[in-house]
Design a protein that fits this description.
Blueprint: H1 11-25, H2 29-61
Length: about 60
């Protein structure tokens, strides 16, 4: 038996979660939600890189 997530969620559980999400949001909303999630992750990464660069600039100026 293979577990995919840290919480021990298997293939059957993932399929069930996917089907419930499909029923709740519909087929057209899920790609929009994933696009928004991707933009959020990218924004978070850019923010983290911006903080790292700002810290390096502060150290150079000191």
């Amino acid at each position: 038996m293979c577990t995919f997530l840290i919480l021990g969620v298997g293939t059957q559980e993932l399929l069930l979660i996917f089907l419930v999400a499909l029923l709740l949001f519909g087929g057209k909303k899920i790609p929009e939600l994933m696009k928004g999630l991707g933009k959020g992750v990218k924004s978070f990464r850019d923010g983290m890189n911006g903080l790292d660069e700002a810290d390096k600039e502060d150290k150079k100026q000191s």
